[in-house]
Design a protein that fits this description.
elongated, 17 strands, alpha/beta, 2 domains, TIM Barrel, binds pyridoxal-5'-phosphate, Lyase, Ornithine Decarboxylase, Chain A, domain 1
Length: 389
């Protein structure tokens, strides 16, 4: 039998109930080491992993061991990060709607910073911190109003988005801050979108951050840390050729264009670029169905395991990893869920496919397993790892 992707332990897959997530931990470690190589060139660059991209405990453990911090957007993520062993001083807490219990949990744990997105949130954190006799370290999330040139559902840095504080309100926020005694301004935070592959977009962000910093200098404020968020994209078309993202160019872009004061630290919050390429969704072909003018491959995985195609019209490379035919055919690859959007790809050229073949849906390590749902009373997918399978 011809195995088109030698990277997959296909024989082992045959004994496992599909669908499941498969993670190549060697690739994850190589990716983390590529990040660390770049970051070690600078003494004031720090990377926090955006936990929301993948919260699998094994994955979190490997990322923690590589020395990254954790960027969390909920109390549950803070709990997951603490459980994985991330030090509280390396955890930051972002998000447009933090509940009181989440703020309390974060203060109790002693996380390093709250990224604050509005005046009422600032007042609430101050109130809760006061009740606990603590001072909360905060960064203001400023909406940079820079277009990330990405899908409208994953752009966050335009004034029409719900995220961040508009720059026109900064004076008001600073006046408010001077009245509040239990919050301390420590940084400025920016995050303008996801799956950004054009370095010019990051350059635009860096230049905008410089302009915004000027406004703070004019009020005699130099914050300790600048956080430029995440968003570095990956190559969904060529997961093998470009298995590790272009970290060198990414960090270089900020080094070249972002003006830091000597005492300032620069923080990054990478999610997708850390974990995306190491994960695949493995699924079995239930049926090959002949339509009137097309053929459908019906998989046992669907939008309940990987929702990105249905939610963002996202592209994932689809491979038949057990095909034994050299003939090709064209298929729509769909899942079993009762929704028309439950489709992984239309008119995909694949080797001739039959019932029982195993498929790999590639680049599924980010926003895959963590977004799985139980719609249709489906079971949540299990996960397996290359070093322990
Ligand atoms: C989602 C998110 C990230 C990570 O984005 P990626 O595109 O996965 O790198 C970073 N920071 C914030 C505030 C986020 O919401």
């Amino acid at each position: 039998m011809r195995n088109i992707s030698s990277n997959f332990p296909v024989d082992k897959f045959k004994g496992i109930q599909t669908p499941f997530y498969y993670y190549n931990t060697d690739l994850l470690k190589a990716t983390l080491s590529a990040i660390n190589t770049e970051v070690s060139k600078y003494d004031n660059y720090h990377v926090h992993y955006a936990v929301k991209a993948n919260t699998n405990p094994t994955i979190l453990g490997i990322i923690k061991d590589a020395g990254l911090g954790a960027d969390c957007v909920s109390g549950g993520e803070i709990e997951a990060a603490l459980k994985a062993g991330f030090a509280p001083e390396k955890i930051v807490f972002a998000g447009v709607g933090k509940s009181d219990w989440e703020i309390t949990l974060a203060l109790e744990a002693g996380i390093s910073c709250f990224n604050v997105e509005s005046i009422p949130e600032l007042e609430n954190i101050n109130e809760i911190a006061k009740g606990m006799n603590k001072i909360a370290s905060i960064a203001l999330r400023i909406n940079p109003n820079v277009d990330a040139h990405t899908h409208s559902y994953i752009t966050t840095g335009l004034s029409e988005n719900k995220f961040g504080i508009d720059i026109s309100l900064v004076d008001k926020v600073l006046d408010k801050l001077s009245e509040l005694k239990n919050v301390k301004l420590n940084g400025l935070h920016f995050h303008f979108g996801s799956q950004i592959t054009d370095m010019d977009s990051f350059r635009s962000l860096a230049i905008r951050v410089n302009e915004i910093q000027e406004l703070f200098y004019r009020r005699m404020i130099i914050v300790e840390s600048i956080n430029v968020g995440g968003g570095l994209g990956i190559d969904y078309q060529n997961p093998d050729k470009n298995a590790i993202p272009t970290f060198h160019e990414y960090f270089e872009t900020f080094r070249k264009h972002l003006a830091l004061r000597p005492i300032q630290q620069l923080h990054f919050e990478l999610g997708r670029s850390v974990v995306c390429q190491c994960g695949s969704l493995i699924s079995k072909v239930l049926y090959v169905k002949e339509g009137i003018d097309k053929k459908f491959v019906i998989l046992d995985a669907g939008m309940t395991e990987l929702i990105r195609p249905a939610l963002y019209q996202a592209y994932h490379k689809i491979e038949n990893i057990t095909a034994d035919s050299s003939k090709k055919d064209i298929y729509d690859v769909v899942g079993p869920i009762c929704e028309s959007s439950d489709c992984f790809g239309k008119a995909i050229e694949l080797p001739e496919t039959k019932r029982g073949d195993i498929f790999a849906i590639r680049s599924a390590g980010a926003y895959g397993e963590i977004m799985a749902s139980q719609y249709n009373c489906r079971r949540l997918p299990k996960s397996y790892f290359s070093d322990t399978i």
